[in-house]
Amino acid sequence: MKNLDKTDRAILAAVRQDGRIPIAKLAERIGLSETPCARRLKQLENAGYIEGYRAVLSRKALDIGVIAFAQIRFNIHDRALSDRFEREILAIERIVSCHNISGSADYLLQIAVRDLDEYGAFMRDVMRTLPGVTSVESMLSLREIKADAGFPLL
């Protein structure tokens, strides 16, 4: 499935917005009957356009008061060290996302914690002890303007 048609895009847009949408409602929304709609959805899943479904958890209900972005720098650029760093990052739940980036830093992390005290302790006890880390520059989110809504349908 290289070329997505209008119907495929409509299905992807609908399930991106609501992963639990019933097939009947999805079919009605995009103008197909249920069986062809279910078949098209299954084809999109099998072709890898849909990697999975998940719930969007409430930041407020979970008492997550601080979202921070941290730029991580290494002085030594060694593949084995980077691999160890990345393996350890994967196991840390407070790190919401991690990107290997270009520019003055090596990695950009998004971190979720309850408050500034917890963030300070997390920096001291976790981030600064990770393999390869020589500097961390933090930026705190003051207000979220747009949340992750999934990838755009280009």
TrEMBL record:
SUPFAM superfamilies: Dimeric alpha+beta barrel, Winged helix' DNA-binding domain. The keyword Membrane does not apply. GO terms for cellular component: cytosol. InterPro entries: ArsR-like_HTH (IPR011991), AsnC-type_HTH_dom (IPR000485), Dimeric_a/b-barrel (IPR011008), Tscrpt_reg_AsnC-like (IPR019888), Tscrpt_reg_AsnC/Lrp_C (IPR019887), WH-like_DNA-bd_sf (IPR036388), WH_DNA-bd_sf (IPR036390). This is Transcriptional regulator. Keywords: DNA-binding, Transcription, Transcription regulation. CDD domains: HTH_ARSR. The lineage of its organism: Bacteria, Pseudomonadati, Pseudomonadota, Betaproteobacteria, Burkholderiales. SMART domains: HTH_ASNC. Residues 4-65 form the HTH asnC-type domain. One of its GO terms (molecular function) is sequence-specific DNA binding. GO terms for biological process: regulation of DNA-templated transcription; response to amino acid. Pfam families: AsnC_trans_reg (PF01037), HTH_24 (PF13412). It comes from the Bacteria.
